[in-house]
Amino acid sequence: MKVLITGAAGFIGSTTAHALLDRGDVVVGIDNLNDYYDVTLKQARLDRLLTRENFEFHKVDIADAQSFTDAYASSAPDRIIHLAAQAGVRYSLENPQAYVDANVTGFLNVLEAARHHGTDHLVYASTSSVYGAHENMPFSVHDGVDHPVSLYAATKKSNELMAHTYAHLFQIPCTGLRFFTVYGPWGRPDMALFLFTRKILAGEPIDVFNHGHHTRDFTYVDDIVEGIVRACDKIATADPAWDPKTPDPATSAAPYRLYNIGSNNPVNLSRYIEVLEETLGIEAQKNLLPLQPGDVPDTFANVDDLIRDVGYRPETPIEFGIAEFVKWYKTYYEVEDVAHNLT
User: Fold this and answer.
1) Per-residue pLDDT band at 321 (split at 50, 70, 90)
2) How far apart are CA 3 and CA 55, in angstroms?
3) How many CB atoms lie within 10 A of CB 24?
4) Could you tell me which residues come within 8 angstroms of residue 27 by beta carbon, excluding any fewer than 6 positions away?
5) Quick one: pLDDT at residue 338?
6) Short-list 11, 9, 6, 5, CA closest to 328
7) Which of 209, 206, 181 is nearest to 292 (CA)?
8) Of all residues in the chain, what percent carry a pLDDT higher than 70?
9) CB contact at 8 A, 12 and 229
10) Which of 29, 139, 170, 213 has its CA 20 to 30 A from that of 58?
11) Spatial separation of the C-alpha atoms in residues 114 and 174, rounded to whole Å
12) CA 120, CA 173: separation in Å to the nearest integer?
């Protein structure tokens, strides 16, 4: 199978590409290598992929309709895993236009390419952020999500609506995956684990928002990728039981599905930091701060549908996942082990 992955030099995209190549698929990678965070890290991820057989790469911005369409048409993929996006809740307060360009215009170009050049299945990344002000735990894809609290969340919710429209009008099978706080080796520098590790090793204080009291459904990247691959293999179909009088947001009379993809095991941020301190052998200096605008206090994924439909089983505890990240971080950045005993 030939799979096109947008965002192939990204954290989740590159890990997904390796997983597909490992099982014998052909992977076409698309990425614009923008400078939202360290381009050197993106290039390092890409360099690892470029050594693999059956991988080809196109440096393309998905917001550039012609360039993306040309790359798509020449590659003729069987399926699409769309992971390219402008990510990050907090940055959306500073540069909202970047989110419209990448997440709305870019996604429209992906849908149009699938419409005019065909695909067996489009799998795309959504986010737990779409739940916004929702507090009915655990978060379920069968509940409405009409109260986003960040522009990032609003753009990803728009992706779900756009995908349904194309599934309905053009019978393009579309599956959306709402990711919950992904972490692990080769992760993003703007994510909490990366920031905390860098600052603790440098002897700098870490900013702990909401005084460390909020919880997150931290999900190890290998578990996320397993879910992506399994979802890609199961082509979305129409739900014969879908009732327009009591519409289920997660399914449709069109070939359309939505799933949560998380660990199904929320962890308090304070505990997450504690495990990192134990792994590093260094106690963090903490700046305790209030909850930031756009953030939500808690996330908790109900993943029953993904378990039922594709056999998804998240299994990685944070103790293992954080240790694997720290091991990678120290190797990649050539950090000497300067750990001290915690008192």
Assistant:
1) very high
2) 10
3) 9
4) 2, 3, 4, 5, 8, 17, 20, 21, 49, 54, 55, 56
5) 57
6) 11
7) 209
8) 98
9) no
10) 170
11) 10
12) 7
Nearest to 176 by CA among 192, 191, 195, 163: 163
The first and second tokens of residue 267, run together, are 């962890």
Q: From CA 183, how far away is CA 89, in angstroms rounded? A: 16
Q: Quick check: 100 and 150 in contact, CB under 8 A? A: no
201-251 confidence digits (pLDDT tens): 999 999 998 888 889 999 999 999 999 999 999 999 999 999 999 999 999
Residue keyed to tokens 């048409």: 73
CA distances from 179 to 64, 87, 216 (A): 26, 12, 12
> Which residue reads 């009915």 in tokens?
136
The DSSP element (H or E) to which 281 belongs, if any, is none
Neighbours of 94 (CB within 10 A): 8
Cα 313 versus chain centre, distance: 17
Structure token pair of residue 44:
């390092």
The encoded tokens of residue 262 equal 């998380």
Helices (H), the chain: 11-22, 39-50, 65-75, 91-94, 96-99, 106-117, 151-170, 192-201, 221-233, 269-280, 304-310, 318-332
User: Mind telling me the catalytic residues?
Assistant: 152
Q: How far apart are the first and last CA of the chain?
A: 54
Buried-exposed string 127-162: b where 16+ CB fall within 10 A, e elsewhere: bbbbbbebeeebbbbeeebeebbbbbbbbbbbbbeb
Instruction: Quick: pLDDT tens for 261-283.
Output: 999 899 999 999 999 999 999 99
In the block, residue with structure tokens 């470029």 = 50
Confidence class for position 184, pLDDT limits 50, 70, 90 = very high
Q: What is the mean pLDDT of the chain?
A: 94
How far is residue 101's CA from residue 105's CA, in Å, rounded to a whole number?
5
